[in-house]
Write a structure and sequence with these properties.
The chain is of the alpha+beta class and 263 residues long. Helices cover 33% and strands 25% of the residues. The strands form four sheets. The chain has a five-stranded antiparallel sheet. Strand 13 and strand 14 form a beta hairpin. The protein binds flavin-adenine dinucleotide. The site of flavin-adenine dinucleotide has 31 residues, from strand 2, helix 6 and helix 7.
Length: 263
Amino acid sequence: MKDFEFHRPSSVKDAVALLRARSGAKLLAGGQSLLPVLKLELAEHSDVISLAGLGELRDIRRDGDKLLIGALVTHDGVHRSPEVQKAIPALAQLAGGIGDAQVRNRGTLGGSVAHADPAADYPAALLGLGATVITDRRSIAADDFFTGLFATALAADEVVTAVAFPIPKRAAYVKFAHRASKYALVGVMVAETAGGVRVAVTGAGAKVFRLTAFEKALQGKLSAAALDGLTVPATDLNSDAEASAEYRAHLIGVMARRAVQAL
Ligand SMILES: Cc1cc2nc3c(=O)[nH]c(=O)nc-3n(C[C@H](O)[C@H](O)[C@H](O)COP(=O)(O)OP(=O)(O)OC[C@H]3O[C@@H](n4cnc5c(N)ncnc54)[C@H](O)[C@@H]3O)c2cc1C
């Protein structure tokens, strides 16, 4: 690991000021994605800015028809939160299925969202539930947030402070997990929201995406039978040692049907 200067600001404002002052700086939350990158020297950062001192980012609270979850809430914190379990049980369950106990105790919602790993679970929840990413300066709809492979709409000096999840009528997340890491080979979130049915897929493409053909079929008829005959084209899907694009296309259909049945 290359040397870097370590900072531990005590406010979001100070974290942003540090990011602006040091062009090679990187934020550190739970370190579950950043530390492997640093250890393997896949990236070099002159400065690492820990968010650990920002207690204000650890809140979970209900705000009308939304659930606000702070960026520093760990996956385990989301999984065990009575507020999350009550308002969006599918989200609590999703968080409990991330990685292993160590990853869940260190990794954070904000870190996962900002990292935008194409096989991560939370992106499916954000897109499937129609969530909004809140940063130090603006709100970004999930539909506009994930822009590509490990890419988001965040500016280099922007800090995710929370995610606002609209509370759905019902939702379910089902994934076909990688045997070792538990990352999603394919994960599907189906949600009945105030704005209609949303279906989001992670693990299968360069970034999380919505399955509009499935959404249309499920509007007003939320049953697995409504998906009869629908298939997913393998074009543009990921293909690797774990699963071919064709297999992932098949898995999307299976996971979507299981999610609908689990609603
Ligand atoms: C063995 C293993 C198994 C895993 N399995 C899964 C799995 O099954 N499903 C899954 O979804 N994930 C999995 N992960 C990834 C895990 O969920 C990470 O916790 C997550 O990707 C990153 O969160 P973090 O808090 O650790 O972020 P960090 O590693 O600290 O940071 C990741 C990136 O986000 C940026 N960042 C962090 N916080 C903020 C913020 N508030 N604002 C802006 N940028 C920020 C950092 O600068 C960095 O670029 C696994 C990881 C490991 C090591």
